[in-house]
Design goal:
- This protein is of the alpha+beta class and 399 residues long.
- It contains ten helices and seven strands.
- Helix 2 runs antiparallel to helix 3, helix 3 runs antiparallel to helix 5 and helix 8 packs antiparallel against helix 10.
- The protein is rod-shaped and about 115 Å long.
- It starts with 12 loop residues before the first helix and ends in a 6-residue tail after the last strand.
């Protein structure tokens, strides 16, 4: 069963009626200019009759449109077939009315109103009849039709109507082609809008899914750390970690995952996370923040730095026997902002950390949010350490 076409996908009646008015106004203009160019007698009366014919034809086209509108949203071949059928009675109606205006009214009424037979004594004497031209052997003779320059004489009214209906048929087919083109343009625009809405909904769902992938991973690691603190009897540190963890999740889960947050909020969340991890690695985890004050109000996707910082802790700090510094920096470069998370861990640990789920998560989130306007690059340095650089459009006070 075919679903009903949504109202937004239909051609507005005002547009259809405007197309009808413009179409027959164009017809009136073209045929009037043609008549004035070909015939030199007064065209005032003819112009009025053409205007009446155009108004009548416009009315027939309105009925044509009302019938065509009933199959709006049908397949193209159905609409075209209906147009071909409806054009036949419409063309016959146009032709019959046109014949009535220009043949019946044009001759009988006009002659009865404006012409009176003169009396014989009032007529001027006829000029002498000129001699007939000599007949040249082999010369073609002029027919009566050629001398009169008439092409419709001898045709019955029905023949004249049918003959004129052929032209009318193409008139109505031309308008129906215009109507179908406008209708399908409206439907195409509606489909594009619906597709854009679906893409936006899918993008929002993808952003939510990608963001919520971060929180369970982080929670798993933190609970493991908390368990270790409890088992080793470090109750005060465990209590502080629980408080920080509650603050972290309360802050991160209150906002819409599809909305951006100020960079200052993102930095604050990473400080909370690193404070939690510092309880695990009090002697090995060092933190450096280099974020200009001018960029604190820049808008970034929420928790976009979390997987990067978490990777640095997991693959650099936890696998190293020496202090490792995690550095978070931000720089403004024209109309873009660059965020960098880097560590100075061991080379082997850095290489292993460069292909994790966290990096793919960040890359996919940036693609879903900004498309090709954002980028995520990472590299493992031979001397040790791993660097991840995010480049995204710089937006201030928009979050």
């Amino acid at each position: 069963m075919q679903s009903e076409e949504p109202p937004a996908a239909r051609l507005a009646p005002s547009v259809a009626l405007m197309s009808i008015a413009c179409f027959w106004a164009f017809y009136l203009t073209i045929w009037s200019l043609r008549s004035m160019a070909l015939y030199h007698h007064d065209q005032t009366g003819m112009l009025g009759k053409r205007a009446v014919v155009s108004l009548f034809s416009a009315g027939v086209t309105v009925l044509f449109y009302l019938l065509m509108r009933r199959v709006a949203g049908a397949r193209l071949r159905i609409s075209v077939g209906l147009a071909l059928m409806l054009a036949v009675p419409a063309a016959l109606s146009y032709s019959a009315f046109n014949w009535y205006m220009f043949s019946h009214i044009g001759e009988g009424v006009a002659m009865s109103w404006h012409w009176t037979a003169p009396k014989a004594e009032d007529l001027p004497p006829l000029p002498p009849t000129p001699p007939a031209p000599p007949v040249v052997p082999g010369a073609p003779a002029l027919s009566v039709g050629m001398m009169r320059n008439t092409s419709d004489e001898g045709m019955t009214p029905l023949q004249s109507i049918v003959d004129q209906a052929v032209n009318g048929y193409f008139f109505f087919i031309a308008w129906s082609a215009l109507y179908l083109a406008l209708s399908y343009a409206v439907r195409a625009a509606a489909l594009e809008r619906r597709e854009a809405a679906l893409r936006a909904a899918a993008q929002a769902a993808e952003l939510k899914a990608l963001r919520y992938q971060v929180n369970p991973h982080f929670l798993f690691n933190t609970l493991n750390a908390l368990s270790s603190l409890i088992l080793t009897g470090k109750r005060e540190q465990a209590e502080q970690m629980i408080i920080n963890l509650a603050t972290f999740f309360r802050t991160s889960l209150t906002g819409d995952p599809t909305e951006d947050v100020p960079l200052s909020d993102e930095i604050m969340l990473q400080r909370l996370y690193l404070d939690i991890e510092r309880v695990r690695f009090p002697d090995r985890l060092l933190v450096s923040m280099d974020v200009p004050e001018a960029l604190l109000h820049a808008c970034v996707p929420g928790l976009i730095l979390q997987p990067l910082v978490e990777n640095a802790v997991k693959y650099a700090v936890s696998r190293s026997r020496r202090p490792v510094t995690i550095r978070i920096a931000a720089r403004e470069e024209g109309d873009r902002v660059t965020l960098r998370v880097e560590d100075d861990g061991d080379p082997i640990a850095a290489v292993e950390g460069g292909t994790g789920v966290g990096l793919r998560n960040v890359r996919d989130r940036l693609t879903a949010r900004f498309g090709s306007a954002a980028a995520c690059h990472w590299e493992a340095r031979p001397e040790g350490g791993f660097t991840v650089t995010l480049t995204l459009p710089l937006v201030r006070h928009g979050c």
